[in-house]
Amino acid sequence: MKYLITCCICFFCTGVFSQQKTILFTNGYWYNGNSFEPQTFYSVNGLLTKTKPGTVDTIIDLKQQYIIPPFGEAHNHSPDTEIEFDIFNERYLSDGVFYIKNPNSIPFTTQKIAHRINQPGSVDVVFANGGLTGSGGHPVPLYKYMIETRYKEAIKGWTYRSMEGNAYYIIDSKEDLEKKWPFILNDKPGFIKVYLLNSEEYEQRKNDTLYNGRKGMNPKLLQLVVSKAHSAGLKVSCHIETPKDVWYAVKAGVDEINHLPGYQVLWKEGYPASYYTLTSSLVRKMKKKGVHADPTYSLAATELIETDSVQYRMRRQVQQQNLRLLKRFAVPLTIASDSYNQTSKTEAEYLYQLGVYTNRELLNMWCITTPQVIFPDRKIAALQEGYEASFLVLKENPLEHFQTVFKIQLRVKQGKLLW
Length: 419
Hints:
Layout: E1 3-6, H1 14-17, E2 22-31, E3 36-44, E4 47-49, E5 58-68, E6 71-73, H2 85-94, E7 97-102, H3 107-110, E8 124-127, E9 131-133, H4 140-146, E10 168-170, H5 174-186, E11 192-195, H6 202-205, H7 222-231, E12 236-239, H8 243-252, E13 256-258, H9 280-289, E14 292-294, H10 299-302, H11 309-328, H12 344-354, H13 359-374, E15 391-394, E16 408-413, E17 416-417
Parallel strand pairs: 1-5, 2-5, 6-7, 7-8, 9-10, 11-12, 12-13, 13-14
Antiparallel strand pairs: 2-3, 3-4, 5-15, 15-16, 16-17
């Protein structure tokens, strides 16, 4: 028996749909990375095909609506425990975010949710596990706080000392790296995360406890980390704060820049807006080395309490200037919020408001570039033969009305209709 279903049905009735193996999607406009074109696709065993199967279980009339690949979140730390997993999962899927890159986590807690992620009905996540930093560096003090708050129930009995070797690795020398590298690999990270913060002041800050949480690893060790990671088939993401951090990261050969200067500018004496401004020569090097970045510029709106409107405007000007430069040299950007209770939707909205990129450029960043960066070896982020049958249905054309991406009509993941 065949079912004729429109996109206006109650998508919460997924029990029947989840059992269907073949679905015909008709009367839709499908995105090809540049424009929308009318096409007909079948979902067979979770994959897209234009070849009609022997049996079609369900027919879905898309009612001339617009179909795009699902979104990615290139930098977030949720979900990472069993605590409130269902809430996080539903939030991501509701916003159309199917793919997540978590650049710092605790293997002990993420292993407990391994059976609940990377499924047709859940988000797909890749974890870096514990990041590499220096003594007193970020995120060491942060985890000291979180063990009494966010992780209090997830890792009962753990102490602050338990965090080293799990949530992070202290790397102050080549000897530290050689000694701890086998343990880093033993936890099977999906990629490696390192921390550089104000590298231009590394010598000044490294032994000063007043800078705890506001410093990172010795930048001179970064190239060795990258070399070892690449030899192990792992890419490297680098947390940065300043243009000098970016310079060191690019020189060392990292693959991804986490944050961009100006994402969380704390104005103070000696640190003017120009301190966080990228240069043409540096951005040109990023392009030449194939480095991409996730700005997380929306943190300026979600994490900081503004008390000075002049400061707020200056921060946005720095962000816009940096983005225009990256756009000029065609440096790829991924969409990421780095906000535990938000999704990349927040960053997409913020970048849209900054007005640097066109609707098409933003859409491609979010539904093509970002997913491909997160899972480069999977057939996702394209609506074509043999790719995963995962997509979002929108009522209007997002190239003309970008904000329609925040009003998803239907979500399909690997051939399973969600809602």
